[in-house]
Amino acid sequence: MTRCPLPAALLLALLACSPATPQQAPSVAATAEGTSFSKDFVDRTVQDAIAALEKGAGVKLEKPVPVVLLTAKQAKERRAAFAQTMPAGSGVTQAMDLLADFMFSDTMLGRYLPDEKVLYVMDDVLRRYAPTEREARELLFETVSHELTHAHDDQAYPGVFPDPVKLAAKFNQGDLSDLPPLQVTMSLLEGHATYAAELACRSAGVRPLPAMTMDDVKDNRSFDGGSNAVTQSLAAAGNVVARMKLVQYVQGRDFCKQAMDFGGEPFMKEVLTHLPLSAAELADFNVFKVRWAQQKEAEESAPPPPQN
Predict the structure, then answer these.
(1) 244, 232 Cβ separation under 8 angstroms
(2) pLDDT 10s digits, 120-156
(3) Mind spelling out the 3-state secondary structure of the chain?
């Protein structure tokens, strides 16, 4: 399958939930052979998460999201088959393909794929980290709540995700000027998903995972380069990108918690329809509120558009 150049692939890892060129996923059965959890168990947990997201966080999907239960190996195979259907230059699809061994590894439990419009659940990862059905339900519940919030934002705010094809082209030319605003935008999206999932867990009486801190980010080593100088260099670059991704969760959650505590999901809509968000606003919610209030006042005092 077509490969994306490494610099773009590493940087596009920051865009883990961003849409690629809009395509329809090929028809694939929602269950896979060799899984230890049942489709019914996954479907019930997903439906509970959908209800809790609406009740606890005000996040309501505009359309259903297919959920597929696969082993990590099967997920890689499915992505390989899907990538074959995509045209050249499809950005995130190709970056995800290059990073498939990392993205569908023994630690990745679930992921919403915007190019497929499908949520993957990795059966063997869930079994490894949650040996009992009760533990599995709690872990799966929070995971799908997070990923379904990404699906909601993909549905509700067309154009809010950065364009991965344009970013890939600029990154491969050595132009990293879009990296700071990309980090801010993705922090907002990851923060929304993280805090909405926490609210859904509270609504359903599910224990959420502990919120990540900057100390967790500082100590993270996602890649091990071993003793080879080349792989050590690649691992170092991968760890830089991985830590940047984790920063998105920490900074984004803090901002979105303040936004949703202030005005719930309706205010998150105000945030997501008054972009771009600056780094200063991400760091200080009150800075955003001042700018938002000024814009709202201008919008409300503007004359109505002429009628045709």
Answers:
(1) no
(2) 998 988 988 887 888 999 999 999 999 999 999 999 9
(3) CCCCCHHHHHHHHHHCCCCCCCCCCCCCCCCCCCCCCCHHHHHHHHHHHHHHHHHHHCCCCCCCCCEEEECHHHHHHHHHHHHCCCCCCCCHHHHHHHCHHHHCCCCCCEEEECCCCEEEEEHHHHHHHCCCHHHHHHHHHHHHHHHHHHHHHHHHCCCCCCCHHHHHHHHHCCCCCCHHHHHHHHHHHHHHHHHHHHHHHHHHCCCCCCCCCHHHHHCCCCCCCCCCHHHHHHHHHHHHHHHHHHHHHHHHHHHHHHHHHHHHHHHHHHHHCCCCCCHHHHHCHHHHHHHHHHHHHHHHHCCCCCCC
Q: 58-69: per-residue pLDDT in tens?
A: 999 999 999 999
Q: What pTM did the predictor assign?
A: 0.81
Q: Which residues, 6+ apart, have CB-to-CB distance to 304 below 8 Å? A: none
